[in-house]
Amino acid sequence: MPIGRKIHIAMIATNLELNGISSVIMNYCCNIDLRHFNIVLFVGHNVALVHKEKCKKLGIEICELAHRKKETVKYYRELYQGLGRQHFDIAHVHGSNSAIAIELFIAALCGVKVRIAHSHNTTCMNMKVHIMLKPFFNRIYTKGFACGYRAGEWLFGNKKFVVIPNGFDVSKFRYDLKERKRMRNELGIENKFVIGHIGRFNEQKNQSYILEIFKYVAEWIDNAVLLLVGTGVLFEKIAEKVKMHPYRDRVIMYGETNIIEEMYMAMDVFVFPSKFEGFPVTLLEAQISGLPCVISDLITEEAILNDNVYRLSIYEKPCIWAEFINKLSVEGRELVYEKILNVITKYEIKNTVKILENEYYEMIKDKE
Q1: Is there a single domain that holds both residue 266 and residue 291?
Q2: Whole-angstrom Cα distance, residue 368 to residue 327?
Q3: Residues 277, 211: one domain?
Q4: pTM for the complete prediction?
Q5: What pLDDT is attached to residue 214?
Q6: Band of pLDDT at residue 1, cut at 50, 70 and 90
């Protein structure tokens, strides 16, 4: 329940690009009751234009910091200066490993009493830093949040944490035949079998493996097309690999988009061979849109909503994935939404944001 004044929150993340964590943050910002909460986003470079525009409309301030990896000292200095300029009740830090202990420590130095560590993954790329900072991390955060149980166990171990499902507007992803036809016409893929992938271009998402899978699919299915949506640090590297691909004329590298739901409509199969994930909203969106999904068996089973998801090992030969895709049925998409409606309710943003608001209220009441 509201406490009679606005609660001031510093939401902290390494960037606000078009990626999973940024989507979660923006969904919170767009749906939280701003009559009772004041949010300032402290985010490293880069910030997607679409997010800037949304925050401007909402009246949410974005404090853009230096690039965390390229200008590390400057990033932390600017964060310290930004947090010190005004009073914050809560610092809510989003990340994937115990390196966020540094952001949490800076918040403590600036007098922020409630410091939330929010886990968004089940492992990380830099285990040495994670292990080194873990003892310090365990002492500096005051509350643990996680997008799923495995993500919580990864970062908090046997300590208590609160699972807040990654919420979004689930109705946007309901299958729409009219939108499918329009989008496929726009992309020039009206009579194609479209294998799709949406994700940040990095080692975790494993787009190189998708290109290997597609070599076999394209060889066996004459009208097969690969649609890759997203951007990221490996975008140019993947683009170079596409140039060398034997079926390069059947690969579409779409790049960034703010009409993500329409991309799902255009696809026939969703492929997601991630090396690790916390709780991938992308996979939820694909399932809600009725797509059969072929995914890595390293992805948590928590994110599986129906029986049209198939888990394979990324250590299998790519031809095994291709054979599986070749046998899939892509019929009956229009029936999926109603079938899983009772399951997806907990991911509806209006429900998850209420959990978040109540957690904020309780933490402030405990401190006052």
Answers
A1: yes
A2: 60
A3: yes
A4: 0.90
A5: 98
A6: low
